[in-house]
Structures are given as structure tokens and as C-alpha cells.
């Protein structure tokens, strides 16, 4: 089931702005910040050039926001070194997407940005 249209528009607007401003323009040939929406999941990831061929870029998963349509709340997940998702327990589920995005940006545990 996809995100409700209003919710998707809000997430698109917020993450487009966030990704654009998070990485300074002079660094965008070395790292990009992007997101994908699939069903009720929104995945935030970095793209970086590979060491062996800088013309090829790889994705590095950072965070996943999961929307539960039954209660209208978001929960937050992080990727381990094997790209498996685990629930992040540093914040409770909330209706406010920005609260989750701020938690990733602040990264008090160092799990998202290292």
C-alpha cells in the first residue's frame, strides 16, 4: 500500500530540500544524498563513487522511515553493515515525519552518519 498522497507530497518536499542542503555543492562530485519511496517505506541513502571506477556510484543505506497507515505514525530504522534493517529505539514512533528526520540529522548515537 503506497503512502497517502498528502503524506507523500510532504515527505517529497521535505526530503528534496534536506538532501539538497545537507551536502555542500562543492562536495557533490564525491557524495550525493538521495531517497527512495517504496510503498510505505522511505529510504535515505548516500551515493558515492567506487574506488576502482569513480564513474560508477554505489548506494549506502542510512535510514529508513516506515509509515504505519493504521495509526498514521512513523518509525525509524537503521541499516547494519550487511544492509539489513533494524528498528532504532532512540525515539518513539510519531506522526511527525520531521521529528524522525531531525533524529537522523542529529544522530545522537552515531548510528546513521558514523
- Record the strand order, biggest sheet: 1-2-3-4-5
Report the uncertain regions.
none
SSE order in H/E notation?
HEEEEEH
**How many DSSP E strands?**
5
The whole-number mean of residue pLDDT values reads 96
Strand content: 25-35%
How does the major sheet shape up?
Answer: 5 strands, antiparallel
State the distance separating the first and last CA atoms: 32 Å
Give a summary of the structure in a few sentences.
By secondary structure, this protein is of the alpha+beta class.
Question: What this model shows, in words?
Answer:
With 114 residues, this protein is α+β, with helices and mostly antiparallel strands. The chain has one domain. Helix content is 25%, strand content 33%. The protein has two helices and five strands; from the N terminus they run H-E-E-E-E-E-H. Strands 1-2-3-4-5 form a five-stranded antiparallel β-sheet. The longest helix is centred in the first third of the chain and has 18 residues. The mean pLDDT is 96.
List the defining traits of the structure above.
single chain; 114 residues; alpha+beta; five-stranded antiparallel β-sheet; 2 helices; globular
Show the helix and strand layout.
Elements: H1 5-22, E1 32-38, E2 41-49, E3 57-68, E4 73-79, E5 85-87, H2 97-106
